[in-house]
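Hi F.,

I've been meaning to write this up properly since the lab meeting, where we talked about keeping a consistent format for the predictions we share between groups. The idea is simple: the sequence comes first, exactly as it goes in, then the structure tokens exactly as they come out, then a line or two of notes. No screenshots and no reformatting. I'm using this chain as the first example so we have something concrete to point to.
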Amino acid sequence: MSRNNYTFTSESVSEGHPDKVCDRISDAVLDAFLNEEPEARVACETFATTNRVVIGGEVGLNDKARLTQLRDDLAYVVRDCIRDIGYEQDKFHWKDVEITNLLHEQSAHIAQGVNAAENKEEGAGDQGIMFGFATDETDAMMPAPIQFSHAILRRLAEVRKSGAEPALGPDAKSQLSVRYENGKPVGVSSIVLSTQHFDETLTSADIRAIVEPYILEILPDGWVDADTVWHVNPTGKFVIGGPDGDAGLTGRKIIVDTYGGAAPHGGGAFSGKDPTKVDRSAAYAARYLAKNVVAAGMAGKCTIQLSYAIGVSQPLSIYAQTHGTGEIPPSEIEKAIGKVMDLSPRGIREHLQLNRPIYQRTAAYGHFGRQPEADGGFSWERTDLVESLKSAI
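Output, unedited:
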């Protein structure tokens, strides 16, 4: 039996967090290859620490000569990411950070399981399970704690980059504990915000004075009251940030990237992976399906699980759960899902138009709960399957 009254907490991290710097670089490498060739294969991992960035993994293009040229000429991509994020620290500066490129051509053994051939459909790039989730508790059909944690950091990044708040640095984390009554979010019991700052004389109280108006601007009216506990830069100074303060690695913020712990996660990271990798594309498809189920009024909350085997085209299983909020039996939703969308890797890519350089923008502030964009970015946030799902029931 589900609980109706409780407190749930989620965190977000900014684009300047060390792990997010790495996610951004990995996705920028992916975009560079997709811009060259829509069917490019990329699995790029990034490591960042003081004065150094290392990129490695597998890449593939049909044009082998261009593959070598592009692979060996990615320093500008790395530096552009670091510059846009805002790092110009003595020990992590976009101009002089040392870059090591260890990318190599994709393994033929992986490619043979994925590539389409005569009498054989293109298979999944790996085995695994992927989850999608949606809830009607916010307009974006996302859990409130993660959605508002993201929104706070995006707002602080905006005022930092605009020059309105020059004291703030790129590295930051937020965390909200949201109170639920009768299953709906009604308030915030605690707010945690740690942000890098450039002035060593600033105290925690000074930083709170800077950030509090923006936090209150983001949160719904009445959610913050006299009982809300604030922890702003609770350890004091936070001047040394980013990879100079703590090493970063691609793929370490998978809960931040998805639902803030409010839904299951299959375990696979997204950033740096081209959409033949179902870790990414099928997780996007599962979110798309769950969101459309909720948008169609079939449930107030929906979890979708998909499972795949490497080299096998169609999913091994489709699972739906409506958490006691369903107007339609989950078994009927599962059948409808199989009718309205081709869930093979190629079917997902074509339906959601994923073979585009649209991934760098996903690297911070969540892959879900964003607005669909004109160029195909965040296409998995559309609700254009509503009528098809209703007709399939």
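Notes:
The longest strand covers residues 168-181.
The chain has a mean pLDDT of 95.

If this format works for you, I'll send the rest the same way.

G.
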